[in-house]
Amino acid sequence: MKYFLPSTRFLFLCLLFTACKSNPNKRAVNLEDLDKVTETEQQATAGPLRSILNATELIELSACTDLPCVQSFMKDRGNDFVHAKKGEFASQYRSAVTDTSGNSLVIPMSTLYVTVDAGADWRMAHTVHTKALSDQLLQEFAAAKFMLTDSVYSNKSAGFIYYYGSAQYPGLTLSQTKTFAPWRARGLYYTVTWPCYVFEVYATE
Amino acid sequence: MIRYTMYMVILLVLVGGYLFLRKVIDRRVEKITDTEVIRENEEYLGTWASKSDSGFIMFRLHRDGKLTYRLVQYPGTDTTTIHGKYVFVGAGGANDPAYFPRLYTFTENGDTLFNYYMRYLTKYDMTIDKIDKMILSPNNVFDTMGFTFFRIKQ
Predict the structure, then answer these.
(1) pLDDT tens-digit profile of A147-190?
(2) Backbone angles phi, psi at A144, to 5 degrees
(3) Same domain, A25 and A81
(4) Do residue A29 and residue B29 have CB atoms under 8 angstroms apart?
(5) Which of A86, A118, B22, B90 meets the CB 3.0–4.6 Å disulfide criterion with B94?
(6) Distance from CA of A13 to the nearest CA of B (A)
(7) A96 touches chain B (CB under 8 A)
């Protein structure tokens, strides 16, 4: 009994001191520092800066004829693109795309798919999911003096494929098409209900 | 065997007593200092603020369900203060922040101030986040718009 009361008081005091020390209260910030915290937060969670590859990058990529080459190229662009599955790169930036029924889908703004099946012909396609981005990319190619050379109707993609060539890049052909079948039954493209704009650049010589 | 059972009972009584006393003192401290002492699963309580180029919002979620909401819309300097109430509804009616709840706030007249899904809330025992964060979002679609609020010292 001699020690009971002092020890109870001590325990009570300890409790009193720990009472205000809840973890969330320790992690609170002063109102004056809110500006600083907001700024730090924005810098720390800096997201992807763009949604598509640019024309110069697609031209550089056209030199690749296998997956490791594309992988090493895309590794430097890891902040904006993720290697989601073997041969399937998707832009980290996602946004709403409206499909033909008016539904809003939140999907990557672009993808870069390459052939990974053994024995299959090499194909590398950069698919852009909005018309605005497609126009932007076409303008970049136009700035590199890519001119329309030919157009054919493709049954496979159920749309016209437009071919472009540039005197600045002899031997390179850009093909662009608006289609609902950018890549047959793969990754994002099993059921496509929104228009896709497919860009492919190949060395023809 | 009886001895060990007795020790067990003593231990349970001690822990239970500690938690009970802590709760009593927490409430007392809250009453005296007019703040919220936050423990596990009630991390949403307290004062939260967010500042952007267009304005400043600060709201306090009181333990008793009351709400104090302050808003300054730039370039103005006037503060609009609204007193009202809030409802915090977790999935299946549970108030556990782990189950992605919604936060509804109402003015005194019963008008809805906002109705947001709580996408992120710093957990009680989190050691990575140095400042508590609450992200409110109009929907639960991944990677879409969200408003970040930080916990403010009261």
Answers:
(1) 999 999 988 888 899 999 999 999 999 999 999 999 988 889 99
(2) -90, 20
(3) no
(4) no
(5) B90
(6) 10
(7) yes
Q: In this complex, is the C-beta atom of A105 within 8 Å of any C-beta atom belonging to chain B?
A: no
List, as ranges, residues 55-94 from B with C-beta within 8 Å of A. Answer: 58
Kindly state whether residue A50 falls inside one of the protein's structural domains: no
Q: What is the pLDDT of residues B8-38, one digit of tens each?
A: 999 999 989 988 988 998 899 889 989 899 9
Number of domains in chain A: 2
Q: Which of A178, A174, A181 is nearest to A133 (CA)?
A: A178
How far apart are alpha carbons B115 and B103 in whole angstroms?
6
Query: In which residue ranges of chain B is pLDDT below 50?
Result: none
pLDDT digits (tens, 9 = 90+) for B115-125: 898 888 898 88
What pLDDT does A86 receive? Answer: 92
Amino acid letter, A60: E
A19, A31, A106: residue with CB nearest B37: A19
Structural domain includes residue A64: yes
Q: Are residues A24 and A97 in the same domain?
A: no
- B chain contacts of residue A20, beta-carbon cutoff 8 Å: 29, 33, 37
Measured CA angle at A125 (ends A122, A126), to 5 deg: 155
Chain B: nearest CA to A73, how far in angstroms?
A: 26
Pick the residue from chain A with its C-alpha nearest to B53.
A35
B38, A22: Cβ pair inside 8 Å? yes
Give rounded-to-5 percent helix, strand, coil for chain B.
Answer: 25, 40, 35
Q: Are residues A105 and A24 part of one domain?
A: no
Q: Looking at the whole model, is its pTM more than 0.80?
A: no
> A59 and A12, same structural domain?
no
